[in-house]
Amino acid sequence: MSVGYGRAVEWDGKILTGSVVVNGVTTKVTADRAIIHAYAAGFSDALSWEIDRFRIEIFEKLMPFLLRQNS
């Protein structure tokens, strides 16, 4: 299985949005603050500005969770 993600990761203050690519198929995924706090190690109490600043790192940490949710 080939897995990757799109580089465009956005934080609108409530939802982190990005895309995962599995075997050439791109799927839009989202994570709210509760998911970030629960599944992104090191960001269990992240503030909005921290999520925005570290959105790529957070998205990478969420990849296993996002893949499970979208498989």
Automatic annotation (TrEMBL):
Domain of life of the organism encoding this protein: Bacteria
Protein name: Uncharacterized protein
